[in-house]
């Protein structure tokens, strides 16, 4: 009695990662990301004080697998934007977000970061940080209590646990902007020019 072959669906190819990590490995990868979030705190106003309170001994979000105060954006997995984002500060927020390696996540902490808060009608205030970078979790409040930030972190961890590598990194999948769409052109590369002769001896320029 012969056995009919079963046609399996073609797996989504993710370059080198698809050859090294089978599909069930996403559970392990997501588990590692979920409980080792290095935080880059972009504190802009009073909400940053509540972030500091959440990281202290009373609330202690390190027990959730969140490591505060990353050395810089290149070592961070999570950016928490807390406070009023002004139009002058918006390019710096975007530039630092672009420096973070994938996978990276953003929590918008407080009403000012969510939508401008009480200063939404100011000519100098950005109407929400999601206008310049993608946001994964919004934490409402003015300012939110530290418990609200803990709840936001738990929601983010639930989202990471459900994450699919194919949806996040596959072409055309997910709702996150592409790398090209996130390039702001804030730091233009120097123009390519051939090196010319050095200054003449005795030239003071």
Automatic annotation (TrEMBL):
<feature type="binding site">
    <location>
        <position position="112"/>
    </location>
    <ligand>
        <name>[4Fe-4S] cluster</name>
    </ligand>
</feature>
<dbReference type="InterPro" id="IPR006138">
    <property type="entry name" value="NADH_UQ_OxRdtase_20Kd_su"/>
</dbReference>
<dbReference type="Pfam" id="PF01058">
    <property type="entry name" value="Oxidored_q6"/>
</dbReference>
<keyword id="KW-0411">Iron-sulfur</keyword>
<keyword id="KW-0874">Quinone</keyword>
<comment type="subunit">
    <text>NDH-1 is composed of 14 different subunits. Subunits NuoB, C, D, E, F, and G constitute the peripheral sector of the complex.</text>
</comment>
<feature type="binding site">
    <location>
        <position position="142"/>
    </location>
    <ligand>
        <name>[4Fe-4S] cluster</name>
    </ligand>
</feature>
<keyword id="KW-1133">Transmembrane helix</keyword>
<feature type="transmembrane region" description="Helical">
    <location>
        <begin position="35"/>
        <end position="54"/>
    </location>
</feature>
<keyword id="KW-1003">Cell membrane</keyword>
<feature type="domain" description="NADH:ubiquinone oxidoreductase-like 20kDa subunit">
    <location>
        <begin position="46"/>
        <end position="156"/>
    </location>
</feature>
<comment type="function">
    <text>NDH-1 shuttles electrons from NADH, via FMN and iron-sulfur (Fe-S) centers, to quinones in the respiratory chain. The immediate electron acceptor for the enzyme in this species is believed to be a menaquinone. Couples the redox reaction to proton translocation (for every two electrons transferred, four hydrogen ions are translocated across the cytoplasmic membrane), and thus conserves the redox energy in a proton gradient.</text>
</comment>
<feature type="region of interest" description="Disordered">
    <location>
        <begin position="166"/>
        <end position="205"/>
    </location>
</feature>
<protein>
    <recommendedName>
        <fullName>NADH-quinone oxidoreductase subunit B</fullName>
        <ecNumber>7.1.1.-</ecNumber>
    </recommendedName>
</protein>
<feature type="binding site">
    <location>
        <position position="46"/>
    </location>
    <ligand>
        <name>[4Fe-4S] cluster</name>
    </ligand>
</feature>
<dbReference type="InterPro" id="IPR006137">
    <property type="entry name" value="NADH_UbQ_OxRdtase-like_20kDa"/>
</dbReference>
<keyword id="KW-0520">NAD</keyword>
<keyword id="KW-0472">Membrane</keyword>
<comment type="similarity">
    <text>Belongs to the complex I 20 kDa subunit family.</text>
</comment>
<feature type="binding site">
    <location>
        <position position="47"/>
    </location>
    <ligand>
        <name>[4Fe-4S] cluster</name>
    </ligand>
</feature>
<keyword id="KW-0813">Transport</keyword>
<keyword id="KW-0408">Iron</keyword>
<feature type="compositionally biased region" description="Pro residues">
    <location>
        <begin position="188"/>
        <end position="198"/>
    </location>
</feature>
<keyword id="KW-0479">Metal-binding</keyword>
<keyword id="KW-0812">Transmembrane</keyword>
<keyword id="KW-0004">4Fe-4S</keyword>
<keyword id="KW-1278">Translocase</keyword>
